[in-house]
Amino acid sequence: MQLQQMYQEIILDHYKNPHGRGLRDPFDAESFQVNPTCGDEVTLRVHVVDDVVKDVSYDSQGCSISQASTSVLTDLVVGKPVGEAFKKMDAFVELMQSRGQIEPDEDVLEDGIAFAGVSKYPARVKCALLGWMAFKDAVARSQGAA
Amino acid sequence: MTTTAAPLDVAALRADFPILSRTVRDGKRLVYLDSGATSQRPTQVLDAEKAFLQEHNAAVHRGAHQLAEEATDAYEGARQRIADFVGADFGELVFTKNATEGFNLVAYAMGNAATSGPEAARFVVGPGDEIVVTEMEHHANLVPWQQLASRTGATLKWFKLTADGRLDLSDVDSVITPRTKVVAFTHQSNVTGVINPVSVLVAAARKVGALTVLDACQSVPHSPVDFHELGVDFASFSGHKMLGPSGIGVLYGRRELLETLPPFITGGSMIELVKMEGSTFAPPPQRFEAGSPMTSQAVGLGAAVDYLSVVGMERINAHEHALTVAALEGLSGIKGVRLIGPQDAVDRGGAVPFEIEGVHPHDAGQVLDSLGIAVRVGHHCAWPLHRCLNAQSSVRATFYLYNTLDEVDALVDGVREAQKFFGVA
């Protein structure tokens, strides 16, 4: 069934038990992003020390896809140098824009590969990218402030 | 109109809408419950558009050749039939690209009044003046007024909602005051289907000399509407929500107002005399139709009102009411479903918004889509309304003449399916 292809168990698990949720101190920058078509929103903070992502914390309201992808994001980027985190982000964005045509690399995206099915639904791609756009913006702000 | 209570022969009507017999998502029967966003077009409308393009296509209001004459007749003939359909005179209807443009036309023209001649004085808005809207508005009848207020220094005020999503009119005279210049409000909410008491608001506005602007996008397609009888000053509605083409909307304005309202978009076709130093403008409706207008769309909308007239707006309205009652009953019987807005079908059109506890509207819509059921999810361009009713967003089912009770049942079953899928049943 198509629905199961989209809502992989991994996605539903992250949705029900999100990782890294809640807003925490210390942080260097915060980004608020909203999906204007559905009103889903995320406030996301980053804490970067010596060019390494020390923490990502967030508060959000949204569908299973946006919640789960933000949860996966924290797994993927926390503890990584900013450059590596951005490489993962680029890989995730590329996957989401692939309309299901890319075989994702599990070594790079880990649980993120579960979103391959979502990429076949153009209306949901924005959901999957909401947290990532907040991450990108927050890191840019933290670098601008440094 | 003979108002026989004969129910619609929906099966026969559906045969006029080819798209309704297609399947979606791996062979699922299409259950189209999103006519509030856009309606489907019957072959009669599609054929009229095609016939115009194949036999009469030319630029209207210019050229002296036979096709130009025929095209102009088709375009203006459509205007006449649409005017008859909504209880207006021929010269009181302006074709726009959509309903949103209609609201902007009025708001921008009012903004232009300050620098126009003395005949436009009644449209001038400035500091100390008030513009009144409601929390129920679609963004199309809200944002243009916010913008007019910020451009002119006028103050924006609004009617609030009651807990069940109706307009709170308990204190009309404190919202509409002698300072009020415009009262813009919706006839029927695009989210909850709530039908507002137009006469109460028109009376209050008239008492203080304010103009009324009605959002008729959800009323004109679904019920008999007569603008003269309603007594509003302006109204805007769109073609694609009433079996007609997209790319065309209609602005109604009372004749004496259109005659003194300054133009919004300027250029060709809307002028009387052009000199290098300045220009004068054509009388309405041409003054508000600058540039080459849409043509096959106007013809298609003319065919749509012919179609609706033959079926009968009273009967369409009664049919949608029955579907709404069934949907409210079916959905309210499901544990964990919260109906947003009024819980009953009194003074309400065919729109039913709801939330499912534990299932985000986007996810619910995805499950319904996998079953072939097309609904709208999100805030439906009415963000303030959702905030008022404590909903971040909602699932909305909307009905039209071609929907059936079977489809309402499919919706109710689909909602149960969504609960099961997300483990909240």
Give the arrangement of secondary structure elements.
The complex is a heterodimer of chains A (146) and B (425).
Chain A: H1 2-6, H2 9-16, E1 29-34, E2 41-49, E3 52-61, H3 64-77, H4 82-96, H5 106-109, H6 122-145
Antiparallel strand pairs in A: 1-2, 2-3
Helix pairs in contact in A: 2-3, 3-6, 4-6
Chain B: H1 10-14, E1 23-24, E2 28-29, E3 31-32, H2 43-55, H3 66-85, E4 93-96, H4 99-112, E5 130-134, H5 143-152, E6 155-159, H6 172-175, E7 180-186, H7 198-207, E8 211-215, H8 227-230, E9 234-238, E10 249-253, H9 255-260, E11 271-275, E12 278-281, H10 296-311, H11 313-332, E13 337-339, E14 351-356, H12 361-370, E15 373-374, E16 376-378, H13 383-388, E17 394-398, H14 405-421
Parallel strand pairs in B: 3-15, 5-6, 5-7, 7-8, 8-9
Antiparallel strand pairs in B: 1-2, 4-10, 9-10, 11-12, 13-14, 14-17, 16-17
Organism (chain A): Lentzea waywayandensis
GO molecular function (chain A): iron ion binding; iron-sulfur cluster binding
Protein name (chain A): Nitrogen fixation protein NifU
pLDDT averaged over residues of chain B:
96
CATH class of the largest domain in chain B: Alpha Beta
- The strand line-up of the biggest sheet of chain B is 4-10-9-8-7-5-6
What oligomeric state do these chains adopt? heterodimer
CATH-assigned fold name of chain A: Sufe protein. Chain: A
Shape of chain B: globular
* Class computed from helices, strands and strand pairing of chain B: alpha/beta
Q: Can you count the helices of chain A?
A: 6
Count of individual domains of chain B:
2
User: If helices are DSSP runs of H or I spanning 4 or more residues, what is the number of helices of chain B?
Assistant: 14
Q: What gap, in angstroms, lies between the N and C termini of chain A?
A: 49 Å
> What is the CATH topology classification name of the largest domain in chain B?
Aspartate Aminotransferase, domain 2
What is the share of helical residues of chain A? 40-55%
Would you tell me the overall average pLDDT of chain A? 93
Question: Strand count, sense and closure of the main sheet of chain B?
Answer: 7 strands, mixed
Largest interface: A-B, 18 and 18 residues
Protein name (chain A): Nitrogen fixation protein NifU
GO molecular function (chain A): iron ion binding; iron-sulfur cluster binding
GO biological process, one term (chain A): iron-sulfur cluster assembly
Pfam family, one (chain A): NifU_N
